[in-house]
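I am still getting used to backbone structure tokens and would like to learn alongside you. Label the sequence line and the structure token line clearly, so we can match residues to local backbone shapes. Go ahead whenever you are ready, and we will take it from there:
>
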Amino acid sequence: QQSVIFSGNLKKQMREKEITQADLAKRLNVTQGAVSNYVRGRVPMVWMVKEIAQTLGVTANDLLGEHALNERQQQEQELFAAIAEKNSGIGRMKDELVTMARRCRVSAIESEERARDVHLLADKTEVEALKLDMQHLNYGKNEIALAVEKLRKCQKQRIWQDGKEFDPEDYMP
């Protein structure tokens, strides 16, 4: 009903003042389509109702009807409060999402660091194993060298073993 009253009063004031939709749109710095919506019954925000009333030289109550301005302002305040509450909730959700994203990033970084540590440990273990292998090889190499030297000495001395002549060449690789 408020839209019918507003539309009727707006049309009446525009006729009396001989203002077209295009003229009103230009004076309000809005599109002609916006003014057309107002004329067809769409009630604008209170601040725009006041702008229209001032442009037409009337009061907002003249356009909306008695007491309608206060009701409209109350409705807008409730709407703005609801929007502010939702924005506040959205802000909290955004903060929570940012916190969660940061935690995930930290967790990913920690996981990467742990993986690097495991790889480093594996590399160190492999290096230690190679060192041990080298030590064993060196030890074995030394043992072989000593054995070869003993065999050569034996070869020179021709040691008898179990009544047979011992030939070191039989035992050389």
Observations:
- The first strand starts at residue 160 and ends at 161.
